[in-house]
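Q: Study each token:
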Amino acid sequence: MKKIISVVLAVLMVASLAVLFSSCSKSGRLEKLRKELEGKLEGDYSSDLEGTTLYVYNWGEYISNGKEGALDINLAFEAVTGIHVEYTTYDSNESMYATLAGGGVNYDVIIPSDYMIARLIEEGYLAKIDTSKLSNFKYIDEQYRNPGYDPTGEYSVPYAGGFLGIIYNNTMVDPADVDGTWSLCWNEKYKGQILGIDNARDALATAMFALGIDVNTNDTAEWDRAADYLKKAVPLYQAWVMDQNFAKMEGENAAVSVYYTGDYLTMVDDMNEASGNGDHLSMYYPEEGTNVFFDACCILKNSKNYDAAMLYLNFLMDPYIALQNAEFIHYVCPNTAVTENKEYSEYGNEILYPKTEVKSQYYTHLDEETIKHYEDLWNKIKSAG
């Protein structure tokens, strides 16, 4: 009995020391960050809300998180304001929407894409944002303000954007097969080496662009035609993936993938860091057309921490923070303090900021009948494949 008690006490002591060490370690990191940020920030970030927990819901791999020496933005925010960020990720607009629609969650800040923001506005999920109270909003480029998905600019603050494109391993794909079109994703030569993008809107769009169908049509017959064409590609797929793209393409375990601009650039960086093989990956935007998108920060109407959320949005737009984030996530940045900064490393990046116009189209929010129809088509495709 004494032996058991001794073991229990020893375990409790180790656990207590671990918690204490973790607490001290975090405290040290927060203090270090506070000192590093002194004199670098323009906004006023009071500690009036110290002790608050802010719940942020964002795409995976979509914020500078301290990896490989980069700034940990959420920890930096806590260092400056005392507000702890509880950060959760999703891998598609649709999975994020399903989580919100399911209820039982208490997120404050979300960062969806254009067409999803329009849907969330229509369905009453979002709180209004008074941008006059955000001192750093002045850095948002005029071309990104009052966009089609939020015409009054009352519900969102631009975050980042990019294009959907085809990523391929140029050591595994014959150059003769890269003709600049969507056909590579239907090429039987690469059966078992193609990754299908695992969300309805993007997956069906690949077929729609290939066939010359308007990706914003409400004609259900056109969606049927796109679904039939997509079904021809499914037997060639190794898997349906979203963020699993990183491991598969970086590990050179797949040859072709449909994914996003910034993630491609992150893959190249990761491969260069790990093996120096980043040049094995290439990307292009198909000539028939592709999706251009913009994601923005929104505050949920049921947020319990609205003021903390506003502070967080202002922090993300702060020139120093925005630069660190843009350098890390590799997406189009709407912040003029970044794009006009000569230290911004993405100048001249043809994938991120193409010099020649990319034939592209934004997704728009569709009518309820069309959404239900293409979601039903998608479920049938997934269950069959």
Summary: The longest helix spans residues 2-37. The two ends are 58 Å apart (CA to CA). Residues 7-21 have pLDDT under 50 and may be disordered.
